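Handoff note, outgoing to incoming analyst
You'll be picking up this chain. Sequence as last confirmed:
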Amino acid sequence: MADDRMTRRKAMGLRRKRWGEVSWPGFTLIELLVVVSLIALLISILLPALSAAKESAAITQCLANLGEIMKAAHTYGNDNDPTGYGSYPTEPWHLGNPYGGVTATLCSEWVYGGFQTSIDHPYFGAGGDWQVYLTELRPFTKYISPGSAGKTYIKSFVCPSDKSHIESYQDDYGVVPDRNDRYGSWEIQGNSYPINWYWYDEPSWAQADGPTRYGCSGIAQMSKRGSDMLSKKVGGSAAEFPLFWEDTMDAYMHDAKPPDDSEGPSKLQVLGIGWHRKVSVYSAGFFDGHSDYRFYDTRYTRGPGYNIRPGL
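Most recent structure output, in case you need it:
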């Protein structure tokens, strides 16, 4: 009797192999393929949702960072402005070479905060303020990360979606910003969020000191406008003026001009893509202290709900 059962089992095994079935008990090759296909289908459905959720979390963190930077801007202004207006930190970190004789060959809009870097700038090379000024020498450090020093990484200055270094330069009007995906902006500049210094390019302001935008001398004129800017940006208008923004928005604002063509048309006329993957949608922090993630027409210096220069 036992021999008969063994014979039948062997015959069943041969039939399985003959019909292309695996010899694993309870599962056929077709069944396994169906299961694998279902798993692949579920993954293809879930991945976009997971990616969207991850990006949503990154936006939330980005806005939280900007909110923290705006609070530091208010506090720093109140602590350091002798006029009593609460001047914003428009350019205090270079004036009078305040840091023990340390001199940078180039000045940037990222160094109010952030941290010292060791990577040479892809465009300017070495010797800029991003490499020279230690973390503890930057005005906002004591408000955002007390005790940080040297090349300490400070999370509050890094957007989670900052994965590319992109910017325009002084003489590149009408040129689409370059992308360097090897480094993030924070790796190059030590900060994902530059200050809005495009208001400084206002022609009527650019006469007195003969400013040199990327040289440290002439740019000092910007510091004289802190209290003046704030006095013009009280109440509702303060909510329309972005003071800090993500690096990609900074790049595309480079060629921005008034929409009435009073300074001539913008040569670029292109809407870029922000770090969070949407066309002309960026994160920014405003004079009144709030931060927002929304559409900005980066071709112009003003538009619905915002402008980038005081008095416009």
